[in-house]
Amino acid sequence: MTYSTIQEAMNQGEGQVSVRGWVHRERGSNKIKFVVLRDPSNTIQCILKRTDFEDKWEDIDHLQVETSITLTGNIKPEERAPTGYEINVTNYEIVGSSENYPITKDQSTEFLADNRHLWLRSRKMTAILKIRSTYVQARDEFFKNKKFYRFDAPILQPNQCEGGSTLFEVKFYQEKLFLAQTWQLYAEAAVFALGKVYNMSPTFRAEKSRTSRHLSEFWMAEVEAAWYNLYDISELAKEELKYCIKKVAEQNPEELKLLERDPEELIKITETEWPTIKYREALKILKEKCNLDVPFGKDLRTIEEEKLMEHFDVPVVVTNYPKEVMAFYKPKDPQNPDEALCFDMLAPDGNGEIVGGSQRSTDIEEMKVALEKEGEDISNYSWYFDLRKYGSVPHSGYGIGVERIIKWICKLDNIKDAIPFPRNMERFSP
Predict the structure, then answer these.
(1) What is the pTM of this model?
(2) What pLDDT is recorded for position 212?
């Protein structure tokens, strides 16, 4: 038997088709059964008449949601059907039974989280996962076209990169290691061999946060490139995001509409200029337009990012944050030593930071001082400092929080819906 996807069957329009999937909805009487069948491509109404299946009617009458079945029948257009087509079934087979499926309407967020392995089948989660897949595949395509190399770094690492307070400690035989906060330090080694590299990998931050924007385990899409300065790398980030978002809008319009996101609006955003401003300019906007007096030297919090982005309807790059609150590897701006050559990209609609990046410091002594202030063992970074001793060049990179991008694209209320199985300080299963 050759099976078509439901979408392929609808594209065929008329004639005999064979499809397979899961019962999404069911209703009927003692004479006729209406089954809405779903597969990853779409849903379709299927009709089973008792006169055609008298000897099997007991089984058909007791079909329940999420039963897996195969069926053959004649497809035709039907305006009254949910997706515009229906199949008059001539033959069917139950593959896997389902009884009392626990996911029903109006259940609590906590119940759905406890049953995440089943909730993934919902139309909402399926749409999100398709969009996420398109985004990730578009990113690979973007960097292949840009002639970047894919480079993978270890997940088990001996040092911190983004702050010791957010490290997950792991026993490694008789040693103590940490789950990766980023691939960055290793990517900086790679650019001296490959020039331009990218990857996407799981990232771990032990942030004791219950906000709608934080996860303990998430996926970071990162980039590192030799010979790139701050301007080069922030412009590349804009280009990458525009490319990927446009691909999603073009390839997943129905999924976006299901999530109440207008694909044409996303395309318009990708065709609009995304501004770049400095941190000091952001403080001025906050003071003059939002009545928020943020002193220089303070990193922008969620509330300040949200207030700033009320004045923009596209993402904005903010550069030159205060050096004193930045990570050790972010260099001083030679023209303004109290500023760092770094950037964040902020998204509108209350989504805040979605990208963080910087030019990388080549000053070993300056980095040692910064690490010592953080209480770090300098000897753990000897290999990293070697990169500056043997033919160092200017280089830069950034990281994109994949779930934060998906949250913004899909207009989600909570970042936990942007990943199949979320992990935070309150949840580690299923």
Answers:
(1) 0.92
(2) 74
